[in-house]
Request: fold
Amino acid sequence: MSQPVDADERARALAVLGTEASVCVACRLATGRTQVVFGSGDPDASLMVVGEGPGQREDEQGLPFVGPSGRLLDELLDEIGLTREAGVYIANVVKCRPPGNRDPLADEIDACKGYLRRQIELVDPAVMLTLGNFATKLLLRTELGITRLRGRPYEWWGGRHLVPTYHPAAALRGSARVLEEMRFDLAIVRRLIDGTYPGIGPASPPQVASTQLDLFE
Ligand code: URA
Reply:
């Protein structure tokens, strides 16, 4: 699919995609949702954040990360000088709430990933921040866990960089160390956006096909 370069055109294409997604019935999650949580933020963002899937608050409000995890995410973004309104676009791997907040299933992720792919193409961020295992495993095409992968950036699809970190829910449940490590990862994001991150090497861990052109096939 061709890529509209103009920011207004990309914002319009994103809105059209959101309307399409709002009536999606491609998987069983359609039956339990209140509404589709497509994504929100700056369509011309330099950072795109990808979480796992909507929870109850998100399902009610139709917006990603509006509950406790979202408040922590906002704080962490604020610490690196970013807000959802300017410079950040937020989406999830699955756009509909899994019942009882269970993990999304492989076929649900599969049914939804075309939307995420198109969101990434349209927002065209310089940097991707993946929150937790689901987003990280999907976008880095790896089975390695977040603890192994975080703490460094990866050269990624289309000249972008990807920074994996914990899901904010892990910091809310976990130790102060998790939060400190998230701050460390967010500082990497800031430096990548500023172009001041030193020496990004080509090395990627095994199982990571970081130069693969089609991440979603
Ligand atoms: N957790 C997520 O992964 N996404 C949301 O939108 C909210 C909580």
In short: The radius of gyration is 16 Å.
